[in-house]
Write a structure and sequence with these properties.
This protein is α+β, with helices and mostly antiparallel strands. It is built from 3 helices and 3 strands. The longest helix is centred in the N-terminal third of the chain and has 17 residues.
Amino acid sequence: MRPRKRQEWEAFLEELKEALDKMGISYRETGRIKSEGALCTVRGREILIVNRFLHPMDKAELLKREVRGRDNENIYLKPEVREFLGG
């Protein structure tokens, strides 16, 4: 994948958030955590909690790590998103 500028990463992150939604995973950003974030289950719902102070590229990489191995074959994802997620 070619290097991206911050604005491009922000736009790509929005596409990744849409993909998460299609997988049934909520996305939340907060400044109240000291780590990068993680995929959690809260009241039976999966939520990806992300440190809001991370660069958009790092947020995208965190998202990728946390959903690795998920079955997304039956979900329409843009080719660039599917490639990034490794599917």
